[in-house]
Amino acid sequence: MENREKKRIMLVGRSTAGKTTLCQRISRRDLAYHKTQTVQVINQTMIDTPGEYLERRSFRGALMVTSVEADYVVFVQSATEEGTMFPPSYNSQFAKPVLGVVTKSDIAAQEQIEKAKKYLHMAGAKTVFVTSSVTGEGVDALMAYLGYEQAEE
C-alpha cells in the first residue's frame, strides 16, 4: 500500500439508503440492519449519520458541523429510491470534497441506477461509485479510492 493515510468519510443519506450496511461491508463485518439513532464513528474512519439529519431540514446543520471531522462527505443514494433528498448543488454546503455512492445496485434495474447517479451528480458529487453491499460490487473501487486497500480492522 502507498504511504497515504486512510481518508475519514462522513456518510449522508436518507434512512434506509444503505449507509450503515456500506460501513459494515467496508469493515468486513456481517451485514445486519439496525437503525442508526445518533452519529457513529466506525473504525476511526467512517462517520455514519442518521437519515433524519438529511430528511429534516432543521437537522441539516448537524451534518455541516459533523463534516468538520471528515476528509470527504459521501452522499449515499439507494438505486431503488424514487426521487432524492439531495437538493441541487448540496455539496456547496460543505467545505469538503463530496463523493457519491449508489447503493443496492444488485436489486435495481439499470435505469434506476442511472437515475440515482444523475441525482448524485446534480447534488454536486463529481465522482460516483455504484455499489452493492450484498454482492460487494463497486466496494473495492471505493475503498481503493479512499486508501482503504486493506480490510478495515
UniProtKB/TrEMBL annotation:
GO terms for biological process, alphabetical: biogenic amine metabolic process
UniProt xrefs under SUPFAM superfamilies: P-loop containing nucleoside triphosphate hydrolases
Organism (species): Agathobaculum faecis
Keyword annotations of the record: Nucleotide-binding
Gene: eutP
Gene Ontology molecular functions: ATP binding
Keyword Acetylation: no
UniProt keyword Nucleotide-binding present: yes
The family this protein is said to belong to: Belongs to the EutP/PduV family.
InterPro entries membership: EutP_PduV, P-loop_NTPase
UniProt protein name: EutP/PduV family microcompartment system protein
NCBIfam families xref list: EutP
